[in-house]
């Protein structure tokens, strides 16, 4: 009797919270659809998401975490720097990528022993070396993009048309090519690959080359959010685009929602109790993702701006280092900030249970740095957003949710975050601007009501996409079917 083995997906996430979190969500999703899944991980990261790994094991889902040594010392990284959010300086990016590249061999060795044999490699686009892994097993090599199709399309078009090279300076606005609508940006607002001061050229080139040679893209978005851009991305790249998101919605149980990525630095019950005590739709949630660290001077302006908006708020504070943390704490103390905002402000220092917060009906607005996960989580929650992009493709995400989808108000920031002490940490946005943006999001008359309505509608569409019959649900099933061992895979690994 011929018994069909389930397909085996090998997932290789970029080691950064914003990339690992959706990949682990995807692992559970693929497993729930009947696939066997292996996720490549390193010891420090495995310890950080220990609860998630244990829960996967307890639930009996066939998701296996393959722990691989990450050679920090050999490449000049401080011990334990196995995640981008642990790097003391951005100048260590090349070292980090060198260390990651060494995962290939031990990963391949472990996979040689695994049954069923791998049927597909889905790798973060930042790790183009995984192509060798896929080719050595003769299986398809798909790239996972933690971006939206709009941002991917913009980047693809810029690579093709080089429009950004025809402007005089980083601050001159120009129109993004081939979008069918007029969207302006500056070079400074584009991801690093388009910067005029590119320091990691070779890594960028490998990533771009990977994008050109991959067998398809898996994207954490859903078709109904950006149908034209999904279509145009497929047309422009000639690649199959599997939209499988929002991946955050695969977390159905309260426990999963509470803990994704790191362990929250606030007691979940306390957080829920606080939210329960607030009116529906009244709270603003302010958070800037996992990587960015704003300067103490900027954090103070945010705190005072949230306070001045007059709305209840949850404010997630992450500081660069001990010194910055002490400065912020001293200021909070001297100002009597927490005491003064006792009844309407909740401060979370460190890791927030973001999904838990966003899923609560008391939350009515999200001040976000427009990281794609956060943006999509805001969309799922059906809340309008204040956009404050900081780096990477976040300025493009801001265009999508503001100008195109009409569910966000810009805080009014036009240049990326300043990363290092030496570059002088300036205040980019003052308290009155924060307060103005939050107030116009939360009251703002008819315009704000319309924005809220659109946000609610997108939230509903997001939920429909992931249930039986929905576009993403169907795509996951099709993706699995297309790589299952019963279907022939041609010699170079491309999908039939
Ligand atoms: N996140 C969280 N708590 C935090 C900070 C971040 O749960 O305190 C999660 C957030 O829900 C999202 C991810 O971490 O899933 C951050 O990814 P995003 O793309 O928004 O931003 P990045 O961290 O990559 O800048």
From TrEMBL:
Record-level Gene Ontology MF annotations: UDP-glucosyltransferase activity
Keyword DNA repair among record annotations: no
Glycosyltransferase N-terminal domain ranges (all copies): 10-247
A Pfam family reported for this protein in Swiss-Prot or TrEMBL: Glyco_transf_N
Domain of life, per lineage: Eukaryota
SUPFAM superfamilies tied to this protein: UDP-Glycosyltransferase/glycogen phosphorylase
Keyword match Glycoprotein: no
EC number from the UniProt entry: 2.4.1.-
InterPro entries named in the record: Glyco_transf_N, UDP_glucos_trans, UDP_glycos_trans_CS
The entry's keywords: Glycosyltransferase, Transferase
UniProt record similarity statement: Belongs to the UDP-glycosyltransferase family.
Protein name per Swiss-Prot or TrEMBL: Glycosyltransferase
Provenance organism: Colocasia esculenta
């Amino acid at each position: 009797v011929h018994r069909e083995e389930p397909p085996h997906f090998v997932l290789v996430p970029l080691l950064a919270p914003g990339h690992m979190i959706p990949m682990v969500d995807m692992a559970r999703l693929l497993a729930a659809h009947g696939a066997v899944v292996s996720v490549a991980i390193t010891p420090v990261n495995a310890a950080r998401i220990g609860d998630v790994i244990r829960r996967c094991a307890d639930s009996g889902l066939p998701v296996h975490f393959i722990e691989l040594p990450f050679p920090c010392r050999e490449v000049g990284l401080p011990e334990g720097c196995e995640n981008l959010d642990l790097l003391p300086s951005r100048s260590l990016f090349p070292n980090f990528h060198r260390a990651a590249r060494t995962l290939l061999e031990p990963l391949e060795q472990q996979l040689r022993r695994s049954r069923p044999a791998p049927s597909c490699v889905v790798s973060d686009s930042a790790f183009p070396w995984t192509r060798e892994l896929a080719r050595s097993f003769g299986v398809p090599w798909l790239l996972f993009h933690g971006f939206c199709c709009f941002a991917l399309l913009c980047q693809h078009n810029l690579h093709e048309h080089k429009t950004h090279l025809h402007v005089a300076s980083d601050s001159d606005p120009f129109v993004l090519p081939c979008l069918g609508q007029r969207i302006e940006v500056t070079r400074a607002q584009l991801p690093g690959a388009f910067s005029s001061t590119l320091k990691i050229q070779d890594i960028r080139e490998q990533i771009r080359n990977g994008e050109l040679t991959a067998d398809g893209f898996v994207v954490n978005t859903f078709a109904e959010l950006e149908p034209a851009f999904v279509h145009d991305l497929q047309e422009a790249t000639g690649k199959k685009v599997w939209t499988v998101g929002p991946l955050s919605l695969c977390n159905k149980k309260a426990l999963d929602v509470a803990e994704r990525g790191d362990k929250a630095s606030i007691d979940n019950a306390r957080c829920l109790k606080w939210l329960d005590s607030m009116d529906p739709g009244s709270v603003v949630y302010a958070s800037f993702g996992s990587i960015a660290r704003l300067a103490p001077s900027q954090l103070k302006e945010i705190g005072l701006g949230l306070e001045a908006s007059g709305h209840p708020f949850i404010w997630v504070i992450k500081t660069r280092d001990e010194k910055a943390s002490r400065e912020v704490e001293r200021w909070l103390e001297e100002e009597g900030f927490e005491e003064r905002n006792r009844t309407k402000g909740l401060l979370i220092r460190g890791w927030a249970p973001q999904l838990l917060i966003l899923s609560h009906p008391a939350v009515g607005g999200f001040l976000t740095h427009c990281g794609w996960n956060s943006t999509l989580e805001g969309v799922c929650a059906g809340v309008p957003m204040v956009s404050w992009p900081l780096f990477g493709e976040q300025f493009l995400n801001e265009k999508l949710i503001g100008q195109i989808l009409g569910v966000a108000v810009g805080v009014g920031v036009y240049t990326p975050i300043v990363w290092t002490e030496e570059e002088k940490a300036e205040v980019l946005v003052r308290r009155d601007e924060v307060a103005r943006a939050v107030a116009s999001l939360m009251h703002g008359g008819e315009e704000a009501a319309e924005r809220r309505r659109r946000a609610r509608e997108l939230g509903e569409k997001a939920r429909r996409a992931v249930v039986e019959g929905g576009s993403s649900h169907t795509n996951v099933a099709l993706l699995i079917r297309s790589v299952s061992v019963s279907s022939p895979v041609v010699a170079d690994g491309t999908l039939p």
